[in-house]
Amino acid sequence: MIGHFPLRIAAAGLLLTAMLVALVVTEDRARAAGREVALPMEAFDPRDLLTGHYVALQMTQRLAPGRPCPTRTQPFDDGGWLALRAADGGFVGQGDTREAALASGGDLAVRGGVLCTRMMVANVETNAVTLDVGVDRFHADQAEAEAMEKVLRARGGGQAVPAFAVVSVGEDGRARLKGVILDGKRTDLTWW
């Protein structure tokens, strides 16, 4: 009986490895099949001692002057939908269903939540929305993370570095991270 124990452990290890590979391949195919959109974001320091090197993503966009906040905030966990313009990742509206969100004028619907706040930009107060589409960090190797950090620290005069999270939105409405664009340089998430 003990003689079969190592064989069972090896079989369990092979099964778990096969399941992990299947998950990675499935997610990679879903990411490739989805519709790509670049969401404006705020980026933060890409290092954390416990979780490795990453850029924390916060999809925040200023609304046009005078445009009011959405009528209600909507946490991601509520299962709502956000309408976006695929061309520029601009937030258009929200709804409880895909159809309700798209009725607000967007051409792409993604599952997510939204929070609206007031912020000061160049001594002018404006509304801004922060989108939660289930993507919150981009892990990078040490060299990439340090290069991203250098770009973020090179901000001059309080100006924000142009930053975008590139996500793929599948038929299921789920956003999957593909990469980030930071100061014009795109860094893609790669498995291989």
Plain-language structure description:
The protein has 192 residues and is an alpha+beta fold. The chain has 2 domains: 1-33; 35-188, no CATH class. The protein has 3 helices and 13 strands; from the N terminus they run H-E-E-E-E-E-E-H-E-E-E-E-H-E-E-E. The chain has helices at residues 5-33, 98-102, 142-153, and strands spanning 35-40, 42-43, 47-48, 52-62, 81-85, 90-95, 108-111, 113-121, 124-132, 137-139, 163-169, 175-182, 185-188. The strands form 3 sheets. Strands 2, 3, 4, 8, 9 and 10 form a 6-stranded antiparallel beta sheet that branches. The longest helix has 29 residues, at 5-33.
Short account of what is shown:
With 192 residues, the protein is of the alpha+beta class. It has 3 helices and 13 strands. The chain folds into 2 domains: 1-33; 35-188, no CATH class.
SSE map:
Layout: H1 5-33, E1 35-40, E2 42-43, E3 47-48, E4 52-62, E5 81-85, E6 90-95, H2 98-102, E7 108-111, E8 113-121, E9 124-132, E10 137-139, H3 142-153, E11 163-169, E12 175-182, E13 185-188
Antiparallel strand pairs: 1-11, 2-4, 3-4, 4-9, 4-10, 5-6, 5-7, 8-9, 11-12, 12-13
The shape, in one word, is: globular
Instruction: Tell me the series of helices and strands, N- to C-terminal.
Output: HEEEEEEHEEEEHEEE
Number of strands: 13
The total tally of domains equals 2
Helix content: 10-25%
Terminal residue distance: 40 Å
Q: How many helix segments?
A: 3
Using the CA coordinates, give the radius of gyration. 20 Å
Overall mean confidence score, pLDDT:
80
Q: Identify low-pLDDT runs.
A: none
Largest sheet: 6 strands, antiparallel
How much strand content do the residues show? 35-45%
Which structural class matches the secondary elements?
Answer: alpha+beta
